[in-house]
Design a protein that fits this description.
Number of helices of chain A: 3
Structural class of chain B: alpha+beta
Largest sheet of chain A: 2 strands, antiparallel
Structural class of chain A: alpha+beta
Order of helices and strands of chain A: HHEHEE
Number of domains of chain B: 3
Oligomer: heterodimer
Helix content of chain B: 25-40%
């Protein structure tokens, strides 16, 4: 087993996901299955092959530096649960 | 007591002077009402896709070349994942393992010694939004209001090697870097507005140690003064801990400018585990020689070259030239003034003396200075031609600050022309000799000082307008 239940808990925490204790074993097993699959791929000899940065054989998709109007202030805040002084109100950020 | 060596590396974030954001077309204008330059991309709406601004790449190459870096042809972007409300997407688009520039350097001069500071890398990324806290400080606030106008504004992060050994070296590096970014016109470098920001990695180690000590990263350094004070404070703090037998904790600290201390910052953000991975929404950027060489050929004159030119062409001392070139606007003012000035050194003296004193006093920059370079040049010429004594030139300068008039006009209006008419001066000389027989006798008896008194009397009579050189010469002739 490459991944322990503690690793799963840590990753869930980093991702802001709640994983019930009851499902911890299932997730741990699935994580390991994914890594085992990656192990199979690791066996392929990739010497001399450029790493793939993107799946599409496309590069240099660029736009000119021209400023345009985005959405209105009201539209921007229309989904905000709370608003304060024209900003998205968020809870305390420091412990 | 153990002697310690200070080790400093700087991470500088420079906002690029583009019109639109890095990955969307929203305006980058500073100082607008909150959340008025936003769109689905920079608000992190599901399904919105980023498209890279070409000018960001252009500016990054330009800065890299000016900072003596190798430009990497293959570029990709990565996601740096973290949960903090300053970015709505919960990740920042950055460059992780393939930065656009590597292995650069800046040469700085500290106390007459030249030193090369390495630049590890420069990468492109996006800025985050701004949090306005409800309370007086971040730690006493129950909530914050987020403004995403700045989210997505393009940045370059310039990471130095840990090559600096004192606050002075760090300051010199930062000043040089700022000048280069200004000259290349990639950043407006307003530290107070946050368009140029600096974090310092600081550690100390006992003299002779092979390995660096544990470092603290200091954030919120918004001025050169803050940078210097924070380094000095932090070094003392770390020394005290080590002297007491303690150990330094690797952590992020914030500079509290009002109290002159660094404070530990524990945010709700997890320990630095950013889980970088390639940004799937952006395709790679492949640079070619043509692009890089075109940018290189368009590089403007850089501060070091300009300094050398001022020394060579205008005969300025190295130190004076270094002060003139430190700000682009100052250097441009000088170049403009010397077009018509008969005395370049005179222009430099005025700029570094009375002009700088006035600017500091008013808290403004040379760009906001009302006196035109042409008018300053004319003032220098009036002195050079003997129309104004240096004392009267200061008087005219004071008037120039009040009204936008040519110094020659002010000289006439104030009746300040220096008198260089021989007949008029001779009359004053003769009068004064007649009125002060004692001083004349003293002078003849070999008391050279007496002549100073007599010159003073004549200057007084002429209300400061007599040409002092001529007065001195004619006095001597008359008394022999």
């Amino acid at each position: 087993m490459k991944v322990s239940a503690d690793d799963v808990k840590y990753i869930a925490q980093l991702s802001r996901l709640t994983v019930p204790e009851t499902e911890m074993e299932k997730f741990t097993e699935q994580f390991n299955q994914i890594l085992n699959y990656a192990d199979i791929l690791q066996k392929i000899d990739t010497a001399g092959i450029e790493p793939t940065a993107h799946v599409l054989p496309v590069s240099n998709v660029l736009r000119e530096d021209v400023a345009k109007e985005g959405v209105t202030h009201e539209e921007a805040l229309s989904n905000a649960p709370a608003v304060h002084n024209g900003g998205f109100k968020v809870p305390r950020v420091i412990e | 007591m153990t002697k310690y060596i200070t080790v400093i590396g700087l991470e500088v974030h420079a906002e690029l002077k583009t019109k639109s954001k890095a990955f969307c077309s929203c305006s980058t204008a500073f100082g607008s009402a909150p959340n008025t330059h936003v769109c689905p991309v920079c608000l992190g709406m599901p399904g919105a896709l980023p498209v890279l601004n070409k000018q960001v790449v252009e500016f990054a190459i330009r800065a890299g070349l000016a900072l003596n870096c190798e430009i990497k042809k293959f570029n990709k972007f990565d996601r740096k994942n973290y949960f903090y409300p300053d970015l709505a997407k919960n990740y920042q688009i950055s460059q992780f393992d393939k930065p656009i520039c590597e292995n650069g350097h800046i040469d700085v001069n500290v106390n007459g010694e030249e030193k090369r500071i390495g630049i590890t890398r420069i990468h492109m990324e996006e800025d985050a939004g701004k949090l306005v806290h409800s309370g007086a400080t971040i730690s006493t606030s129950d909530s914050s209001a987020v403004d995403y106008n700045r989210a997505g504004v393009p940045l370059i992060e310039i990471v130095s090697e840990p090559d600096m050994r004192s606050a002075e070296e760090a300051r010199a590096y930062m000043e040089n870097l700022k000048a280069i970014l200004e000259y290349t016109d990639v950043c407006d470098c307003k530290m107070q507005e946050g368009s140029l920001r600096c974090d310092a990695n600081i550690s100390i180690m006992p003299e002779g140690a092979k390995e660096f000590g544990t470092r603290a990263e200091i954030k919120n350094l918004n001025s050169f003064r803050a940078l210097v004070r924070a380094i000095e404070y932090e070094v003392e703090r770390q020394k005290e801990i080590l002297e007491d037998g303690g150990h330094i904790v690797q952590e992020t600290r914030t500079w509290d400018d009002a109290n002159g201390v660094t404070l530990s910052m524990r945010s709700k953000e997890e320990a630095h585990d950013y889980r970088y991975f390639p940004e799937p929404d952006l395709v790679p950027v492949q640079l070619d020689d043509a692009w890089i060489e075109r940018v290189r050929s368009e590089l403007p004159e850089l501060p070091a070259q300009r300094q050398a030119r001022l020394v060579k062409e205008h005969g300025l001392p190295e130190y004076d030239a270094s002060l003139i070139v430190a700000t682009k606007a100052m250097a441009e003012y000088f170049d403009e003034a010397v077009k018509t000035a008969k005395d370049s050194k005179g222009v430099s003296n005025w700029m570094l003396g009375d002009v700088s004193a006035y600017l500091n006093n008013e808290g403004i920059t040379i760009s906001e200075f009302k006196v035109t370079p042409a008018h300053l040049a004319e003032l220098v010429n009036l002195t050079k031609d003997g129309v104004l004594s240096s004392k009267l030139a200061k008087k005219v300068f004071a008037e120039m600050l009040k009204e936008d008039k040519a110094p020659s006009v002010l000289v006439k209006e104030l009746g300040l022309e220096q008198v260089s008419d021989e007949g008029a001066i001779l009359k004053l000389v003769e009068e004064t000799i007649a009125e002060n027989p004692q001083s004349v006798a003293d002078f003849k008896a070999g008391k050279d000082k007496a002549i100073g008194f007599l010159v003073g009397q004549i200057m007084k009579k002429s209300r400061g307008k007599a040409n002092p050189g001529m007065v001195q010469k004619m006095l001597k002739e008359k008394m022999q």
